[in-house]
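Write out this protein's structure.
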Amino acid sequence: GSYYSISDYEAVNPEFGDIESFDRFVAAAHDLGLKVIIDWVANHTSRDAKWWKEGHEDWYVLDEESGLPIVQYDWTDIAKLDYANAEMREAMTSAMLFWIGRGVDGFRCDVAYEVPIDFWQQAFARIRAVAPDVYLLAEGEKTFLHDSAFDTTYGWDLHHLMNAIARGEKSAADLRAYVESDAAAYPAPAMRLMFTSNHDENSWSGSEFERMGDAAATFAALTFVLPQGQPLIYTGQEIGLDRRLEFFEKDTVDGLTDPQCGAGWRELYTDLCRLRHTNAALAAGEDIAPMIYMEGAPEDVMAFTREKDGRAVFCLFNLSAEPQTVVVTDAVAGGYKTLAGGQYTLTADSSILLAPWQWMILTR
């Protein structure tokens, strides 16, 4: 049941089908206008992996006493690979190219910071030569991962900060400071994966409802509008799943294909995704729209605009458990509409009352 105990880099887990069914899946996704990235575990294999069985002991970091692959951290089911071995590097790169050849659009690379950066740089140069638009996501929060390597890194610090704000331990002021420091550390075109949950957080720390309570939807919306961000929707979030998923055991989620299940959450994420795809002010990558804070907003409110190519958003987030009143300034007065399509004409001195954890995104 381990996600990370890889036996064969060029095979499909038979629980999910065979290589032909994988090909059909990718083709169907592409027909829907979706891109497919796969999890890539390059730091280690299983302890009974094909490479080990084939006699490539020198491809592994071995324990001097036992002669077996070392156990890294407490990951007792894995065998750490030795990136000093050129043959292993070539085999790893070839395996990634195998999946590119089957139409895969990119990779989410597990514990990417544990693998030498020069491997990623060399491997990705070869991959980009045949797939220039490949998307490369690093599970890690290290600035060097963007050095001729990854497009996007995980925003763990933001995730933990949002949890702390929801608990009342941090405030909107801390979030403003984070946005500034993160932009300096990860300048565009670097992109940052923003999330209120993922496989680690859900299983070990609890669902977003356990960690964020009434603020869960607020922070979900925030991940769609911050600069340089790419939002993540983890399994079940689109239907408001409010339980932990088993980590090392098969644990299915009922209701994903039932349009009546979690309707409010489906609508929320559908609206947010549509907004991201249709409003140029929220585009990530090169030439991002800056965040301009509205003067005079309450301390606990994130009130800002972003504008690009004639499109704009005006975002209001009450990041507190108390109601807040926002008085609109001249800088943001003008015609806006909500995600639901209602028309608003904001004039200077317009007053907006935000309930605890309420948010609004207006567009024009």
